[in-house]
Amino acid sequence: MSKKNELIQAVEAAGLYVYPKSVDEAEGTVAAIVRKGIDKCLAVAGDKACCFTGEEAGGVKYCPLSTENAKALMALFPYTKPVSHRGHPFTIGLGDRLGLATPGHVRAIAGYGAFPILAQQSIRELNLTSRTFADVIAAAAFGVFQEGYKDGYGADGDHLKTKPEITYALESGCTMITLDCSEHIDIKAAALSPEAAEAAYAEVPEEVRKHYEETYLNKELPCIGKLDLPELRSIVLVFWKAIVHAEDCFRHIEATRTTDVDFELSIDETLTITSPAEHFVVVNELYAKGVKIDSVAPHFSGAFEKGVEYAGNLNDFARDFVVHQEIADHFGYKLSVHSGSDKFSVFSTVGRVTQGHVHVKTAGTNWLEAVAVVAEHDPDLYRRTHKFALEHRPEAEKYYHVTTKVDEIPNIDLESDAYLPEYLHLVASRQTLHITYGLLLAEPWFKEAFYKLLAEKEEEYYARLVSHIGKHLRFLTAEIKK
User: Fold this and answer.
1) Is 6 an active-site residue?
2) Is 29 among the domain residues?
3) Beta carbons within 8 Å of 169's beta carbon, 6+ residues apart
4) Parent domain of 31
5) What is the helix, strand, coil percentage profile of the chain, to 5?
6) Per the residue annotation, which of 262, 264, 278, 305 is the catalytic one?
7) Which of 53, 105, 241, 480 is deepest in the core (most CB within 10 A)?
8) Is residue 451 packed enough to be buried (19+ CB in 10 Å), middle (13-18) or exposed (0-12)?
9) Residue 481's pLDDT band (boundaries 50, 70, 90)?
10) Is residue 19 one of the residues assigned to a domain?
11) Considering its fold, how many domains does the chain have in total?
12) Which of 24, 135, 156, 158 is catalytic?
């Protein structure tokens, strides 16, 4: 009898369920994800079982799904460890705020040629969910192992702003750093009057002004043509400090990393749309300094609010997106579309223009699909959750910009249980539930019942993710396949 079958028999004899795709063997050691009731653990037997922490019974060590055991798993089965996505044209960020979604995400990407970033979190998300980067990567590793997925995945330290945050992400195992330059972008400078802009520009160090004017002023530039002094002056005022910060952070990544790390530049966290000229100058400056960029996230035209459809003029978006893609092609990196969850109306344009050479980030919709399971199966819990979200939305708005209004949401006390799942399709209630995830997960009454229900309805939750993320992928790839 093979070692795999021996492990399966021993585990099943102990009354546990074995996830069949997870059973694997390496270095004289067999391991599998197993479950008893709603609780999961890792079953290990063989030469390397000593590397895992757990309790032994009947020749099998049963190990909690901890960060320490995840590290041992990644050492034994390297395919469970995140890697760089470099060389993969189509990548998708699938942030998992619950630590439960990876199996569903793995199933969702099948057949679409997308390389997944299964571990994707920002510092804000970590703080709101009381998790660490190590927790996020561990959940992805165990999920990958459960599904027997061996085609690779990445881990994104998302929207990091400082070198200490970058160090934390890299030391935790992140293979991608998304640098958020928003605190070094002078948004107000874009709105200055010509006289005020001229005065502010005069305060910029002379060597900086000289460099930009000699490099860009009245030159025929690729993709964008000529820049006159007022436009160049505005770009310098808004972005020159962000460019310095980005180079500094890239040097820090180079000095800190131990493996290949993907570097994404985020200039989308602003109130103003990124013009093609701004995009070009920022990246051209960094490339001239030897900064290697894998993807750039401009602030595209229209509204990319959390968890809901794109709002804006689709023709304007398409026109601007084409120019941004020309700039990305010129330098050789991918465009990155942030807050990509549910932006179905722009995905055909994104897929067609990029021809699948793009990075798209989603995050919160896996949480919303989990809440939909609650609405479907536990009406009382959903009603309490819904009312809590409405009451605490002002607090959540400190972290997320939204424009929907709570008075647009039907009074839940007037609706039947059968209607409750519809709240996940109404823009205002969907967005309210979307942004209050951290506050809800901090409530013991919610968290305990929520995780218990999701464990009981595990396959339904995965199926929802396959359907929902699959819809994203269908639209993104529709024009590529033609």
Assistant:
1) no
2) yes
3) 133, 157, 160, 177
4) 3-64
5) 55, 15, 30
6) 264
7) 105
8) middle
9) low
10) yes
11) 1
12) 158
